[in-house]
């Protein structure tokens, strides 16, 4: 794994002159953030040695290097999900690459169902913590100390300093946001109403099918982490209507403008 990651890193080092300090993983329908990136260099996942490829609608499958207000960034337009059939090492492969590429800060975003009944579709939620309901962990297997420790601490997974930065920025910009706990499941089914009731009793405010594996690896490798969920629908049982991924992507795109403005301004201060 280490050699493969370094092969990918070498390729990127040769391909682009950028050396970003911030990476952004864009969730379903949130790809428009790349419109805020100037002097872009785009690379398709297909071209990158050892990189998986995206198979989900709303996930383009490109690394986008460039600048937001002078700050060099790397945006991942399209992520990998466990339900696509990738194993956890493949799902989290880009995070290993980002870290070895020298990136110290990661912003993870997602489209998620609202489990907190005070939320509504379009709410932006700053992730304060998460619950791993995948039933597995991307760090299972032999540990490579070059990446991180065998037993990573997760007592401050979502970096307090970055949360404060995002909150101050939101207040300055008049952006409305909430805070809460993201629960990640394998999908690809949306939840049953009974599962949603169980997840609420566990402390979930938002439910999705991503983010947790990436964050586990980012924390393990020692990155600073900021997470934002875009609530695209209320979770099953709270919502009256059935879910569809098309509706998820549409709401994410509609809310995307606020999300993009918020992330872009926050990035400038990192
Ligand atoms: O988490 P992201 O990739 O934003 O997408 C969310 O939306 C999709 C379901 O509609 C799932 O992939 C879920 O995880
Ligand atoms: N698991 C899950 N993922 C989502 N992604 C967007 N909405 C939802 C949802 O309600 N549940």
From TrEMBL:
Keywords: Glycosyltransferase, Phosphoprotein, Transferase. Pfam families: PNP_UDP_1 (PF01048). It comes from the Bacteria. A purine D-ribonucleoside binds at residues 191, 233. It is an enzyme of class 2 (transferase). Residues 21-267 form the Nucleoside phosphorylase domain. GO terms for cellular component: cytoplasm. Pathway: Purine metabolism; purine nucleoside salvage. GO terms for molecular function: purine-nucleoside phosphorylase activity. Its EC number is 2.4.2.1. Signal peptide: none annotated. Phosphate binds at residues 28, 59, 79-81, 111, 210. InterPro entries: Nucleoside_phosphorylase_d (IPR000845), Nucleoside_phosphorylase_sf (IPR035994), Pur_Nuc_Pase_Ino/Guo-sp (IPR011270), Purine_phosphorylase (IPR011268). GO terms for biological process: nucleoside metabolic process. PANTHER family: METHYLTHIOADENOSINE/PURINE NUCLEOSIDE PHOSPHORYLASE, PURINE NUCLEOSIDE PHOSPHORYLASE-RELATED. The purine nucleoside phosphorylases catalyze the phosphorolytic breakdown of the N-glycosidic bond in the beta-(deoxy)ribonucleoside molecules, with the formation of the corresponding free purine bases and pentose-1-phosphate. Belongs to the PNP/MTAP phosphorylase family. This is Purine nucleoside phosphorylase. It comes from Ilyobacter polytropus (strain ATCC 51220 / DSM 2926 / LMG 16218 / CuHBu1).
């Amino acid at each position: 794994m280490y050699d493969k990651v370094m092969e990918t890193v070498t390729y990127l080092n040769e391909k682009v002159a950028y050396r970003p300090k911030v990476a952004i993983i864009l969730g379903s329908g949130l790809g428009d953030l790349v419109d805020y990136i100037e002097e872009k260099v785009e690379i398709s996942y297909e071209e990158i040695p050892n990189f998986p490829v995206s198979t989900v609608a709303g996930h383009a499958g490109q690394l986008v290097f460039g600048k937001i207000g002078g700050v060099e960034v790397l945006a991942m337009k399209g992520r990998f999900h466990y339900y696509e059939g990738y194993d956890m090492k493949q799902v989290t492969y880009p995070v290993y690459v980002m870290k070895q590429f020298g990136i110290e800060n990661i912003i993870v975003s997602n489209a998620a169902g609202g489990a907190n009944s005070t939320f509504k579709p379009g709410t932006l939620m700053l992730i304060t913590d998460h619950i791993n309901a995948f039933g597995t962990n991307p760090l299972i297997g032999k540990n490579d100390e070059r990446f991180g420790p065998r037993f990573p601490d997760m007592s401050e997974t979502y970096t307090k300093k970055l949360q404060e930065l995002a909150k101050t920025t939101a207040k300055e910009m008049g952006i409305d946001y909430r805070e809460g706990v993201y629960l990640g499941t394998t999908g690809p089914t949306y939840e049953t109403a009974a599962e949603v009731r169980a997840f609420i009793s566990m402390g979930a405010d938002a439910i999705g099918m991503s983010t947790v594996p990436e964050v586990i690896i980012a924390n393990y490798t020692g990155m600073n982490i900021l997470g934002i969920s875009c609530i695209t629908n209320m979770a099953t049982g709270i919502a009256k209507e059935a879910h569809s991924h098309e509706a998820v992507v549409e709401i994410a795109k509609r809310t995307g403008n606020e999300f993009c403005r918020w992330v872009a301004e926050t990035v400038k201060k990192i």
